[in-house]
């Protein structure tokens, strides 16, 4: 065997083990099991809420949504909906909803002229600020309505936006 020269300060890498690592194997099995449970819907976030389009009334627009969830108009600063007055692309419309009502439990964002009007449903954990900000799709110009469940009642507020290119097909 030939004589190998070594540079001072450099050490050889430790030998690679051919034995399986039980901790790594356990981690991979548990991770795979968790991924499978989540992907099949057997395990998920307990606060996630889903409303199917079939559960909404057949009528479209404000009357159908208000009948489905109920709602009384919010006054002044109780519920504030912020949307741009005009958007170029309806595929990404920024919306924010803030509620100053005590005991706010849920915020729903409804776009009345969309094929599926319910754009978002967010449950608000107790003790947190009732503020939601997101980007949604808007099919055409019209009202974006926020329904806020607080103190056992549903409050509603809206803002209007004009869309030059619709975001829903």
Describe this entry's structure for a reader.
This protein has a domain at 57-165: Immunoglobulin-like (Sandwich). Helices cover 15% and strands 35% of the residues. It is built from two helices and nine strands. The strands form two sheets. Strands 1, 3, 5, 6, 8 and 9 form a six-stranded mixed sheet that branches. The radius of gyration is 26 Å and the shape is elongated. Mean pLDDT is 76; it is low at 46-53 and 56-62.
List the helices and strands and how they pair.
Blueprint: H1 22-39, H2 62-69, E1 72-73, E2 79-82, E3 86-89, E4 93-99, E5 104-111, E6 118-123, E7 131-136, E8 142-150, E9 153-165
Parallel strand pairs: 1-9, 3-9
Antiparallel strand pairs: 2-4, 4-7, 5-6, 5-8, 8-9
| Regions with little confidence, pLDDT below 50 for 5+ residues | 46-53, 56-62
Overall geometry: elongated
Strand content: 25-35%
CATH class of the domain at 57-165: Mainly Beta
The number of distinct β-strands equals 9
Notable traits:
169 residues, alpha+beta, Immunoglobulin-like, 6-stranded mixed sheet, 3-stranded antiparallel sheet, 2 helices, 15% helix
In a nutshell, what does this entry contain?
It is built from two helices and nine strands. With 169 residues, the protein is α+β, with helices and mostly antiparallel strands.
